[in-house]
Amino acid sequence: MKARLPQGMGGGPGNLQSMVRQAQKIQDQMKQKQAEIEEMDFQTTSGGGMVEVVISGKKEIKSLNLKPEIVDPEDIEMLQDMIIAAVNEAIRKVEDTTNEQMEKISGALNIPGLV
């Protein structure tokens, strides 16, 4: 006895081609959005605004600004920690934005090979 699937369900060349076209469309949208994100700048601060970092969507540091009062030769470790915190937060912003935008496009599908 053969099982019958409702119309529009199941395999077949037409359905497979449709899925491939849809996957290609999603992949193209994701590549376009990734390119847009790479052109964006992400700014963060740490230490109450004493350290400011701007990075690109490619996760490259574009600028690093330090308030003069944060520079204490007796406490370089604190300055280093604040720079690290600001850079890490900027990277998180890029990754969160990228993930959020990709989920909007893919509908939260996890399709291997799509960006």
TrEMBL record:
GO CC entries: bacterial nucleoid; cytosol
Localization: Cytoplasm, Nucleoid
UniProt keyword Manganese, yes or no: no
GO molecular function per UniProt: DNA binding
Family per similarity comment: Belongs to the YbaB/EbfC family.
Keywords: Coiled coil, Cytoplasm, DNA-binding
Coiled coil spans: 16-43
Organism of origin: Youxingia wuxianensis
Protein name: Nucleoid-associated protein H8705_05645
Superkingdom to which the source organism belongs: Bacteria
Biological role: Binds to DNA and alters its conformation. May be involved in regulation of gene expression, nucleoid organization and DNA protection.
UniProt-listed Pfam families: YbaB_DNA_bd
UniProt-listed NCBIfam families: DNA_YbaB_EbfC
Subunit structure: Homodimer.
